[in-house]
Write a structure and sequence with these properties.
Elements lengths: L38 H5 L13 H5 L7 H9 L1 H17 L13
Length: 108
């Protein structure tokens, strides 16, 4: 799709101002795809969510698999718990030597 209700059809702009690579359009997992929150975990199990939102079988598995389900439900029910778990995982990856590029992060 060139354009969807969630994307304007343009390609992402790189940090140097040039047009990025990739395809135009596409689908989003959440309605506010540039906002960092727990809405992904609310949208995936919601049968009444907008049908144009992306829901892959791997996404749905988070709420079906007995190992993942407690975490998916916890993150759905509490944005604070999602943020705490994300921060801990990000910190651990940093301490283990993971390199995040670009070094200053991505600015939108």
């Amino acid at each position: 799709a060139e354009k969807t209700k969630f994307t304007d059809g343009s390609k992402a702009v790189r940090a140097d101002g040039k047009e990025g690579i990739g395809r135009k359009g596409g689908s989003s997992w959440t309605e506010q795809w540039l906002k960092f929150d727990n809405s992904y975990f609310k949208t995936v199990p919601d049968a009444n969510a907008d049908p144009e939102l992306l829901k892959l079988s791997t996404d749905k598995t988070l709420f079906e698999d007995e190992g993942f389900k407690p975490f998916a439900e916890k993150f759905r029910d509490s944005e604070e718990e999602f943020f705490k778990s994300y921060a801990a995982a990000h910190k651990k990856l940093s301490e283990l030597g993971s390199k995040f590029e670009p070094e200053g992060g991505i600015k939108i």
